[in-house]
Design brief:
With 486 residues, the chain is of the alpha/beta class. 40% of the residues lie in helices and 22% in strands. The strands form 7 sheets. A 7-stranded mixed sheet has the order 15-18-19-14-13-21-22, sandwiched between helices. A 6-stranded mixed sheet has the order 10-9-8-11-12-24, sandwiched between helices. A 3-stranded mixed sheet has the order 1-5-4.
């Protein structure tokens, strides 16, 4: 089935262990090619109900699958991800306009993520609780173990459709759940290919259901009482809608951001500018931790802006299938036009566009906006595009305050060698993670990742996701204890 997906424009849905080849088709037009690159079978209301019933019916069967067996499947999936990396990276480039070299990097992370999930599957266990440390516990024994939650729902975004699906699906499978995947409409074929990887690796067909569709499909799945836990990655507004539809369910929400990076007066300005250029336009800036707001100490502001502009000018913009391309297209023309409009608004209110600021179709020229006002959209909103805003600061405490004015709080970066500043920023910045001598746009897939405020809650790494995908069950043995009586 994986070969069929990779060679075909169709992205089938998987329901009840059967790849559905009937039903209404939704076509995905590639943002760079401006031609239809994939077609997906859209789930009807009956398909949603059938998927939920099927997942619930096989939850006990999946829970009885030994952790070692789950781990072996995930390790095989990791190897297959490496073998198929070029083919799936091409799908990513066609469906999303992401440069193929970035897609290859994403597939390397898929392989790593499945391998980490395999390791976590082998570590799932429980505890012997120290109940004899309190008088009422003397003579008793209390044990816990982590049981699968049952049915997990994974709602994935378009910007990293392969790796973020690997995180959700891999951790859920490691935990022993059945999983329903609601694919992003912009990346149906990539989503189907990742699901097919897990099945080709030996996962039971009952382990996963894949549905395509829009918000109405996601809302119906979130509201289904059979679903025990939901992991969603996307915008803050959609995350709030997920929470409302879900009701009293366990949630992991990884939402938006407008990440800040601080460049202190002791930083290497050239190195910082090069890294901001390299990480600020990856995937055309369509990442929740992409470099968006850069605060540079006033003593180095002009030099930093010049160097950043020079580095950005050297980026190659064009065909995402060209291995040399650094910046491809955004997800669609409307997204590129929105960011170009925000840049123009900033310039109309006193900022300077040192490079870029224009779009051709879905391709936005990498843009640097210097000195925007604090209330500009490029500062206060999530740009989610190929634009970096640079601002000067004077006082370190003041720049921390400026960073914290955001309603988001996912990650931040800081360039400095001063350990006091590092520890102060770690303590004071309202974010889930701080990258030292690097930008906000860095992530290790086996390290906890998530935010605060409107960036969501929960942590999206396999170790922490396994916790969210499982429930603690307690056993108390009255009158039985290795410690004996009082």
């Amino acid at each position: 089935m994986l070969d069929t997906i990779l060679k075909s424009a169709d992205a089938p849905a998987l329901l009840g262990g059967v790849w559905l080849m009937e039903g209404p088709l939704a076509e995905r037009t590639g943002p760079y090619t401006r031609a239809v690159v994939s077609r997906a079978r859209v789930a009807a209301e009956g398909d949603v109900h059938a998927a939920v019933r099927h997942a619930a019916a096989y939850a006990r069967q999946m829970a009885r699958l030994a952790p070692a067996t789950r781990a072996s499947v995930l390790e095989t999936a990791s190897r297959l991800a490496t073998e198929r990396r070029a083919e799936i990276a091409r799908l990513i480039a066609l469906e999303l306009g992401k440069p193929v070299k970035d897609g290859l990097g994403e597939m390397d992370r898929v392989a790593d993520t499945f391998a980490v999930c395999a390791a976590e599957a082998r570590q799932i266990g429980g505890d012997n609780l120290p109940v004899a440390g309190w008088e009422r516990g003397i003579g008793n024994t209390a044990l816990t173990y982590r049981a699968p939650a049952g049915v997990a729902l994974a709602i994935t975004p378009f910007n990293a459709p392969a790796n973020l699906l690997a995180h959700k699906l891999g951790a859920s499978f490691a935990a022993g759940n059945t999983t329903i995947v609601k694919a992003p409409p912009q990346a149906p074929a990539v989503s189907a290919a990742i699901v097919a990887l897990l099945l080709a690796a030996g996962a039971p067909v009952e382990a996963v259901q894949l549905l395509h569709g829009g918000g109405e499909v996601g809302a119906a799945l979130c509201a289904a009482p059979e679903v025990a836990v939901i992991s969603f990655t996307g915008s803050a507004g959609t995350g709030a809608a997920v929470a409302r539809a879900a009701g009293a369910k366990r949630l992991v929400l990884e939402l938006g951001g407008n990440a800040a990076t601080i460049v202190c007066e002791d930083a290497d300005l050239d190195a910082a500018a090069k890294m901001c250029a390299r990480t600020g336009y990856t995937n055309s800036g369509q990442s929740c931790i992409s470099v968006q707001r850069v605060y540079v100490h006033k003593s180095g502001f002009d030099g930093f802006v010049r160097q950043l502009t020079t580095e950005v000018a050297a980026l190659k913009v064009g065909d995402p299938l060209d291995p040399a391309t650094d910046v491809g297209s955004m997800v669609d023309e409307a997204a590129a036009a929105r960011v170009a409009g925000w840049a123009a608004d900033a310039a109309a209110n006193g900022a300077k566009i040192t490079i870029g600021g224009r779009n051709e179709g879905a391709t936005l020229a990498p843009t640097v906006v210097a000195g925007p006002s604090p209330d500009a959209a490029v500062v206060t909103q999530e740009v989610f595009g190929a634009l970096v805003a640079v601002m000067a600061y004077d006082d370190f405490d003041d720049v921390l305050t400026a960073c914290n004015t955001s309603r988001f709080g996912l990650q931040a970066g800081i360039f400095t060698t001063d350990i006091r500043r590092i520890l102060t920023a770690w303590r004071e910045l309202e974010v889930g993670g701080l990258i030292v001598n690097g930008t906000s746009n860095f992530r290790l897939d086996h390290v906890p990742f998530g935010g605060v405020k409107e960036s969501g809650f929960g942590r999206e790494s396999p170790r922490f996701m396994v916790d969210d995908y499982t429930v603690v069950k307690t056993l108390i043995l009255r009158g039985i204890s290795i410690w004996g009586q009082q």
